[in-house]
Structure prediction request, 101 residues.
Amino acid sequence: MTTQISSSKSSRIAREYRSYVRQAAQAESYRPITVVDGAQAPRPRGDSWHYETRGGTRISHPSAYSKSGWSNMVYCSSTSRVEVGREWLAARCIPVEAMRA
Prediction:
């Protein structure tokens, strides 16, 4: 007789796996997880959202530089994520499929 795991229970287990990986990386809970080849331990990667000038200089206080009408500011979206190696997950018996939110 096979035991079926309910979808709510399996999603809860997957959520716990993702939480474990983020805690191992000491990263925030909102960061998505990217699985890469290798045995690399979880680590945070990328940048948070920010504004830059068209020349590429980062703007610390965008409201201080904004003008009505034309602006030299460019919004750069967040690239923050947690990268973890496939082999690192396998060594801890964590299925790769659990990393997909």
